[in-house]
Amino acid sequence: MSKFLSFIKNNKAISWVLGFQLFRLILLPFMGLMPQDAYYYLYGQNLSLSYFDHPGMIGYCLRLFTDIFGQSVFVVKLTDFIITSLTLFSFYKLASYFLSKQKAENAIILLASTLFISILSFNSTPDVPLLLFWTLSLICLYKAIFEEKKGYWILGGIAMGLAFNSKYTALVLQIGLILFLIFSKKYRKLLLSPWFWLSIIISVAITFPVWYWNYQNEFASFAFQSSERTSSITEFKLDAGYFFGAIGHQLFLLLPVLFLVFITFTFKFIKRALLKFKLPKSKTLFLLAFFIPTFVGFFSLTPIYWVKLNWMMPSYITGIILAGMFINKKLLKIQVIFSIVFHLLVALEVLFYLVPIKSDDTWVGWKELAIETEKLQEEYTNTFVFSDDNYKTSACLNFYMDDKVYAQNIIGLPALHFDYLGDNLSTLNGKNAIFIDSDKRFKNKDKKGENHPKINNYFDKVTELAPIIIKRNGKEVRKFWVFYCENYKANPSSTNK
Prior knowledge:
The protein is α/β, with parallel strands linked by helices. It has helices at residues 2-10, 12-27, 35-45, 57-69, 73-96, 101-113, 115-122, 127-146, 151-164, 171-183, 194-206, 208-216, 220-235, 240-254, 256-275, 282-289, 292-299, 313-326, 329-352, 366-379, 392-400, 455-458, 492-495, and strands at residues 383-387, 405-406, 432-438, 459-472, 475-488. Helix 5 packs parallel to helix 8 (127-146), helix 9 runs parallel beside helix 11 (194-206) and helix 20 (366-379) packs across helix 21. The N and C termini lie far apart (77 Å).
């Protein structure tokens, strides 16, 4: 033990990484359930080959951990923390292939200090396993290409397939690999190698469950992820808010120093390629092949489309290794100072909820809402509960309550994967219901005064009850409107005939 402590003391990089991870681990029990945690936990409790809005890897991970350690918010968060810690370890291994020991240590400090690692450690999303399998894919491909270890082509194919089974953006891995081989004079011959094609075939084979689920469900997931976004992009409406919003997100996730280093070296490499027709050396080109398509590709869409803050995350893996080539001790120190300040602010918010979040994307109030809803069910017996906000309220109540909670498919609206849980809504005919509607802005304690326009079509009578007010540290922080709905009709059109 003393040798281990001495090793940590003499290794500043490990000390910093362990310090950041220990901070996150200490904060973990104080983090309440996020809607994303509850929704992907629902994935795991309803095992399927794939799911409507994403592949199922995060759901499988949560199912595994909660089956072993029990269902609790802490275990859900611990799943994310452990997987992200494995990503950090894998990243350091990958960085050591490209950087000197000192620069690799700088790179791991850069990565560990970012807020996006904190988000992945605290919040269940498909990006949690995606980043791990993305990093493992790059390790395997590096060894297959640069160390000519053929067995790693097979392992790389498996890792790329598992990355795709985490999130569809992992398709960029195969794209990046092909782009690297095309532009690399030294390794272009590998495009004809049977090992390369075996790796691609294996990666596709591993994704078979996702394709088969889509085949069984009229390719609903692929259509959901592509058609709406494609139509929005093709409209080509410029919006400065999208662009500056994306910059704000990246400054928050990476912190200013690292983001500016990203912009600097991206400009440098693109300028050299376009003006001097000069490509970097093979290893640097490899890193860029898995950075440029995702980072620059999504950034180029920001003037016309709202790019979500997590879409660029996979590019950070090789991007931070590239940043490690350029960043100096002074900039690294500034990055760490920024990080400490921001993480302390995050800790204060988690512990004391100083700034109320005017959104359902919060960790506050869900358990209290479930308790109050169960009290209503005791008062209004033989009722089922449903909500209408895509998944957030319904998923969180499902996590805490014994009775099944439904989503907006109760009133004929699309409800993401709730539509694919196999529920026969006609079994609810004639039952009464409690409808929960979140007041995201919460300006007063008044009733809403009006019903959801669809509800009256599915129930004979709707009565608004007193809203549920959630308090935190004695302060009123959240509000939910409540409606008592009588005599449900799953198919109102046929009932009216």
